[in-house]
Write a structure and sequence with these properties.
552 residues; mainly alpha; Serine Threonine Protein Phosphatase 5, Tetratricopeptide repeat; 32 helices; 76% helix; TPR repeat; TPR_rpt; Tetratricopeptide repeat protein; signal
Amino acid sequence: MPLSRPRAAVLAAALLAAISMPTMAAPDPFGRALEPLLQAEFALQAGRLDEAAKGYLEAAEAAGDPVLSERATRIALLAKDEERAARALELWREQGGEGVDVLAAEATLAMRRGQDRAARRHLLRLMATPDGWRQTLGVLGAGARDPEQAAELLEYLIDRDAIPTQLQAWLAFGGLAQRVDAPELAERIVAEVVERFPGEPRVALLRASQLREAGDKDKALEALAAIDAQAEHDADLRLSLASEYDALGELGRSERTLARGPQDDQTYALRASLLARAEDNDALKALYGELARDAVRPDPQRRLLLGQVAEFLELHDEALEWYRGVPGGPQRWLAQLRATNVLHELGRADEAYAALGDIQDDAEAPETVRRDAYLLEASLREKDGQPEAEMDAFARALAAFPDEPEVLYARALTYERRDDIPRAEADFRRILVAEPDSVAALNALGYTLADRTDRYQEALELINRARAAAPDNAAIIDSYGWVLYRLGRNEEALTELRRAYALQKDAEIAAHVGEVLWVMGRRDEARRYFDEAREIDPDNRALKRALEKTGA
């Protein structure tokens, strides 16, 4: 498990205390380790991963501490400094490091160096450990140089019969094959799973998912139909089946699947959401009637749900009545906020803003509710085309909740949308003054600088700080790939952006992949990603900018 930054800071403090004790001299190794460790921490705080890797390695060499050696290994891998990663890993082993974490690091380093024979050896050893397949899954998903390498190594493990006879493991590796765009390998895994686990309904779910990714919707539906009856008395399977129907765009089938079992407020809410998205108002009205008949007792959750369904149906007067009838509990505050939105939809904007003002001034309201009342007001002001009033709502929110990160973040995004990058940057930096390790603010500011300015090196350092905290986050990997592209490092950028897209099918990431491919002259591939982005979100801002830039 990675050493957290707070733990590294604690270690630095311990070393400092050791050399500051007046009654005894500090052990020489710890004294020598302190300076490079502190330098490494400061470098990491600044997003300079190459300097951090250097400092951690020097500290690990001086202290002889396996915790520092592990940290040095991980930071060097993150910095793509293979030479230092190898030296740190050797130290880690010499100092007693062993087990799945070391094997995972060895496999990752071998993959990064293109030493596939060594990577295979390490992965086989990792797979042989108890539950080692989970670590292997992470290594292949996040440590490979590119999706092709991950697919080749996964196929090698299957050839060597290294995957344990556990359905969960096979399903997970099947999902990985799909994410790295290896349809033939995914097909092979499905065939293996069918043979090894006959009659298991989750195999059909994997098969349907694979067919969906391949664009064969009809066969995917056939696979789901084969397990439809089995879902009758299995709540978990019913939920999974409904989720797959949803992914296929079969919202009605998804809702009908959920309707077959015992119902509770969560199930009703899911069904209502599906019907609303399907714009099936007749079915939604029927569900609304079913819920209303059972709402005689003043149940807060049920009345809140009824208000939300009435909103979906644009029955605003009824929605307002339900919301005002929520008797108490935490639901009451959410109902009050929703009621102001309904008032706005009814054209009673003055009442809506007055109600929001009452919530903002209510000392009994939870702070998060009062804060959200300001945020909702800003959103409604924007909808009403009142930019000055929108900014005033943010200002009053910050007067009531100084340096509140959620408010600063929302205002920064508003500034960015208005092309006021200096003010957006100022708000992101205000968050970082109070919360230096805010991954969201680091990533948002880094991406903004990469996307909207030419301060690419500064953007890279901010994004690197976010990467150090959350190396497997798809949004952060996308930001990293995008700043590499802006720096002209197109091949590296494409690798990172494709890895991000494998983790999360997102329109903005797809647009980024498409733009990089287009610039590299691979225009047929680029059009495929642009088409996928359109299917996910045709109104995505990054997609529109990419299409305008490329003329695709």
